[in-house]
Every structure is written in C-alpha cells, then in structure tokens.
Amino acid sequence: MTDTAASADSSYLPEHTPRLHMAKLAPEVYKAMINLDAAARQGVDPVLLELVKIRASQINHCAFCMDMHSKDALAAGESVERIVQLSGWEESKHFYTAKEIAAIELTEAITLLTDGFVPDEVYAQAAEHFDETELAQLIASITVINSWNRISVTARMVPGHYTPGSVAHRH
User: pTM for the whole thing?
Assistant: First the structure.
C-alpha cells in the first residue's frame, strides 16, 4: 500500500511506527549487512534469489521484506501468479521448476532450524540442481535474508514504501 492509497481511503488502519532506525543507529552493521548481501548474491539467479527471499520473509512474518522482494521480483520480470502461489508452493509445484523447488525447500529447512536441522534429503535435492559454488552462495543468501528478516521485524520497519532500485531501503 502506498501513502496515496492510505490517504485516499480513511478506512485503512494507520501504519505502525518503526521502533528504531538501524541504518542510523548502527551504520557500520547496516553497511556490513549490505556488503554481505552483495557478496552472497553473486552467482545466484536474480529471480530465484527473490523467490527465496520472499519465502523466507513469509515464514519469518517480515512484511517489510515481503514488500521489498515482491516488488523487486516483479521488477525483474517475475509473475504476480508465481509470487502469490509461493506461500502455498507445496500445492502448486507446477508453477516452479525442479531447481526452484529445491531452493525453496532448502530455504524452508534453513529458516526453520527450530524444527531440528536441514534434512539430508533436502540438502541432496539442492545439491542435484546447484553446483557446489552455487549451493554455497544460495546458502549464504538464505542466511542473509533470515538475518535481514530478524533485523526488520525487531526494528518494526514499515512496509509499503519501498520502490525497486531505491538505495535508501535496499537489502
């Protein structure tokens, strides 16, 4: 939702306010996270990366990151249909390639470590679709989005204002 949509219809609930501004209060940490994200994404297909980031953000209930990465996915040419189906991918596998499903399953296993560990079969499936370097970069990317989710949820970053290509809110 944009400011324009909210102001045009007063029936929308008001936005929450952020708890704190990480980029201003911990600028070196924020810069390090941006650099880590840039390093992790090297060699990972940009559309696949956005699907992974959206799925991890859905699991972690990070509305700010869901907003950002859905918009980035659309800007990269991803379809609305595939983004919408992502939260129910197990029932709509036919929307995705086997490689994308392997990445989504790995994302869920890494994101939900409280369920135990990354199962051997999930890792093996991913290893069938990605060479070792790609797999290492994918694991790094999944780890980074989970870190961003935790920062964004805890800081209560406000969704709805991100514009693809903007540097101020990029991660």
Answer: 0.90
